[in-house]
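Good morning N.,

You mentioned wanting to compare the apo and holo forms, so I went ahead and generated the holo version with tryptophanyl-5'AMP. This is what I fed in:
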Amino acid sequence: MIKENKKTVFSGVQPSGDLHLGNYLGAILQWAEMQDKYSCIFCVVDYHAITVRQDPAVLRDRIIETAKMYLAAGINPEKSVIFQQSDVSAHAELAWILNCSARIADLNKMTQFKEKAGKNQETVTVGLYDYPVLMAADILLYNTDAVPVGEDQIQHVELCRDLAQRFNRQFGETFKIPELVIKEEAARIMGLDDPAKKMSKSAASPANYIALADKPEEAAKKIIKAVTDSGKEIIFNKDNKPAISNLLTIYSLLSDESIKDLEKRYRGRGYGEFKEDLAEVVKEFLTDFQERLYKIKDSDVKDILRAGAEKVRPIAEETLSRVKERVGIK
Ligand code: TYM
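and this is what came out, ligand included:
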């Protein structure tokens, strides 16, 4: 399973809200595509989720749901490892050690923290502030070569690289420096209600996103109601037509038809017709996805997560042990 000679991919999603098309197209779909070429490790990052308040019973369910989404999206546990972050305690331990070389100035630059904390910078948790360091620990524990993520995580992966390089300089060669992998066209799926903001689990209105668990009929309605731009041409132009460009992106990624072909097909036709067709595409995608999703049993997921943690724990422990030696606590 941890394939010799293959480069290692690591990525994760927080089980903290409704997983949506942005998570799927920006991250999980590319994970599925990478499985044959790489040795892949996909994590349900529950320690990240508790950086904001969670209802314990809901969180417990969401951890299982998130792993099911990975499976329904085509992550194959025979090829890739799926595990729950808190099942491998080395994540928290390495995060602590990295905390002791990460600087306040590093974290003060993180735009996602600033956005999430907003005006509440003094009252949000220390965990939320520190979350990029935990993310760095996740990645570095597995000698990761490549980290496929959406655009909002670029800064965090860059911080991870900086922390690893700094540690290597201070204590000697310890960590492999991971590369960022971005699927450009899918890296920033925007909100359906506001194409100036990204599609987000924590959006104020469910009209912002298509959740992977939305009823297909309801999702279709969200597409019909999605904000459009002025004019009526269906052309891709992020600056002048952000809403239509976003819908074209979603259409193209779900149907495997190029944006150029879609533009040609809808030349001279209005937004109404275009949205009707996209609504159908989304409905079909969700119907198929959910057919797979609802077949997966909780007990099977628990087995997969347990087996996944067992497989990766030795790698994580070996890295942690090397790090402890380097800093002089072992
Ligand atoms: P999270 O849970 O916020 O998002 C999971 C993945 O989905 C991508 N994404 C998007 N992509 C395109 N368009 C969007 N609108 C959109 N919204 C979200 C995110 O970029 C991400 O790839 N900190 C991470 C999870 C994490 C992690 C890691 C990732 C923890 N440790 C180690 C990689 C490696 C997070 O909160 O992602």
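The mean pLDDT is 96.

Happy to go through it together on a call whenever suits you.

Best,
F.
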